[in-house]
Design a protein that fits this description.
transmembrane helix, mainly alpha, 94% helix, single chain, DUF5326 family protein, 66 residues, rod-shaped, Uncharacterised_SCO3924
Length: 66
């Protein structure tokens, strides 16, 4: 691997490789942000469904008593 790195021209080592690393890091960061935001959205939807279900159960129990 060191031989391959040394065989590259200096402009590739100093310009092209850092730009590629920055692009890959940027994409990785946005991938993580997307996964986290989708998980948060999913949890919000689950909480909404559970809350609505609890409200329906409470209303049905109240209606059954009266």
């Amino acid at each position: 691997m060191a031989e391959l790195w040394k065989s590259l021209p200096s402009w590739v080592r100093n310009i092209v490789v850092p730009i590629l690393v920055l692009i890959l890091a940027w994409n990785l960061i946005w991938f993580v942000v997307g996964v986290v935001s989708s998980l948060i959205g999913f949890l919000i939807k689950v909480l909404l469904v559970v809350g609505l279900g609890a409200a329906v159960v409470i209303l049905v129990k109240k209606a059954a008593k009266s």
